[in-house]
């Protein structure tokens, strides 16, 4: 029996969010995308040989979402994220995984 696929996504934008396209990992954006399945693991921030995982975050709309309960600014964001994940423990014939997330209205 195959194990279920585990998918983890975490995005950090280290600046006031604005619309536009951001490529990471960088000083301003981290897109942590991780997938595991049947003892194989892929990560968007892993480097394998001359290839490196990456992500592109495209924000198409931003809205303030502060309801007064937080000590820091809170925003809603809409857009897409595309990531290239590199396998953490590559085997012969393995390669990268491309994923895309749409979090638009």
List keywords for this structure.
single chain; 105 residues; mainly beta; 7-stranded antiparallel beta sheet; two-stranded antiparallel ribbon; elongated
Fold topology:
Layout: E1 6-13, E2 20-24, E3 29-37, E4 40-43, E5 47-48, E6 51-52, E7 54-64, E8 75-87, E9 97-102
Antiparallel strand pairs: 1-3, 2-7, 3-4, 4-8, 5-6, 7-8, 8-9
Approximate strand percentage: over 45%
- What is the CA-based Rg, rounded? 16 Å
Helix content: under 10%
Structural class: mainly beta
Give the integer mean of the pLDDT values: 83
Extended strand count: 9
Total helices: the number is 0
Biggest β-sheet, characterized?
Answer: 7 strands, antiparallel
Oligomer: single chain
Inertia-based shape: elongated
Name the helix and strand elements from N-terminus to C-terminus, one letter apiece: EEEEEEEEE
Q: pLDDT below 50 for ≥5 consecutive residues: which ranges?
A: none
How far apart lie the N and C ends? 37 Å
Can you describe this structure?
A hairpin with a 2-residue loop joins strand 3 and strand 4. The strands form 2 sheets. Strands 1, 2, 3, 4, 7, 8 and 9 form a 7-stranded antiparallel beta sheet that branches. The chain has a two-stranded antiparallel ribbon with strand order 5-6. It is an all-beta fold and 105 residues long. The chain is elongated and about 50 Å long. The chain starts with 5 loop residues before the first strand and ends with a strand. The model has no long low-confidence stretch (mean pLDDT 83). The chain is built from no helices and 9 strands.
